[in-house]
Amino acid sequence: MxxxxxxxxxxxxxxxxxxxxxxxxxKMIEDILSENPVxxxxxxxxxxxxISQTDVDLYVLRRYRMLLKVYHILKKENIRDEIxxxxxxxxxxxxxxxxxxxxxxxxxxxxxxxxxxIAERLRRLEEKGIVVKETKGRGKKYxxxxxx
Length: 148
What we know:
Distance between the termini: 18 Å
Mean pLDDT: 80
Low-confidence stretches: none
Order of helices and strands: HHHHHEE
Number of helices: 5
Radius of gyration: 20 Å
Helix content: over 70%
Structural class: mainly alpha
Number of strands: 2
């Protein structure tokens, strides 16, 4: 099972690299065309659509990679608590969130979750070095630590 996951991660990495190269080449073409506007607005629109589609694909790939990271964390840390699993799954798919947002998404995922329990599980995950709290002004967001 672990070999398949590693193989999948390698394929995703290669795909991300290819998509980055394609996006850079398309951006270069768009820049050249924008310098010589001789009625190529249609071409520019097509290129912009392709570039935006590539960005979406990269986002999806990065979220998928984050889910694989969560799988490794759950296995390595032997996390069996359903709330902690849900927290990590939400952070992997949604990115950094504050406690209210996180509680809302965990409730959607599980059907129930209290803010107090979410905060308690976040503290445990933070103590284990799995989750990081980012403070900006009065706001606090939680994200999965870059550990793999």
